[in-house]
Specification:
- With 265 residues, the chain is an alpha/beta fold.
- The chain folds into 2 domains: 217 residues, Rossmann fold; 33 residues, no CATH class.
- Strands 3-2-1-4-5-6-7 form a 7-stranded parallel beta sheet, with helices on both faces.
């Protein structure tokens, strides 16, 4: 019989970026259900406070911190706030990301490149560095990077975003090698199409009925015949955060409803 206690996060502290909505919010709630205290980070405190209140209603500790992790000085400020509350971070979920425009390589401007790469890659790298230093001092931990299927198979006109996520996949591998001696595991998940505000923004110019029809049409092309939900990503995050995945590092789990097995949407 499986020992479910290996999935417990009791006594652990998790930090989740992009934690106010979508996959980040689902991760915060599910990690708290598994026993973790949670630091939730995003740019808007009002949204974070709602998630923190939900976590605290479960009897867990929650700390909302407003920060833009694409800026190194804000990472430093955030880490000081976290360290004033918790001794260490046991679990880091690098979820914050952006892809502000569908645009071809012929039209993209430097500021678009910078906004995507600064958050999706630079911020992830330097936050991992800061948290890994804490993890090293306390004996280990688990870092989980939220990538994308676009890091494996790019979408048309999302070249910068796809490149950033391919880089995240490689960073997951390189960081896993470098941090393994300190008992720090680094893994990732690569979601496909998931019903988040980020995803639904793709249909902002549609009417509500047209958007739902387009989303359903996209889902129909997948082997599982539907778009995923944020909660369906969170179970993998609990697994990767817990001792149940104790011999796994450097891997990125694809959770895409079978998208990569069929023709692109």
């Amino acid at each position: 019989m499986i020992d479910l206690s290996r999935f417990s996060l009791e006594g652990k502290v998790a930090l989740i970026t992009g934690g106010s909505q979508g996959i980040g919010r689902a991760a915060a709630i599910e990690l708290a259900k598994a026993g973790a205290d949670v630091v939730v980070v995003s740019r808007k405190m009002a949204d974070l406070e709602k998630v923190a209140a939900e976590i605290e209603s479960m009897g867990r500790n929650a700390l909302p911190v407003a920060a833009n992790i694409s800026k190194i000085h804000e990472i430093d400020k955030m880490m000081e706030i976290v360290k004033s509350r918790f001794d260490t971070i046991d679990i880091l979920v690098n979820n914050a990301a952006t892809s502000p425009a569908y645009i071809s390589i012929l039209e993209a401007e430097e500021r678009l490149w910078d906004s995507i790469m600064n958050l999706n890659l630079k911020g992830l790298y330097f936050l991992t560095q800061a948290v890994a230093r804490l993890m090293k001092a306390s004996g280990g931990g688990s870092v989980i990077n939220v990538s994308s299927v676009d890091g494996f198979k790019p979408q048309k006109n999302l070249g910068i975003y796809s490149a950033s996520k391919a880089a995240v996949n490689m960073l997951t591998k390189s960081a896993a090698i470098e941090l393994a001696p300190y008992n720090i595991r680094v893994n990732g998940i690569a979601p496909g199409a998931v019903r988040t505000r980020f995803f639904e923004a793709l249909f902002v110019h549609f009417s509500a009925n047209e958007a739902e029809a387009a989303i359903q049409k996209m889902g129909d092309k997948l082997p599982l015949q539907r778009i995923g939900l944020p909660e369906e990503m969170a179970g993998a995050l609990v697994y990767l955060a817990s001792d149940a995945s104790g011999y796994m590092t450097g891997e990125t789990m694809v959770i895409d409803g079978g998208l990569l097995q069929v023709s692109p949407l």
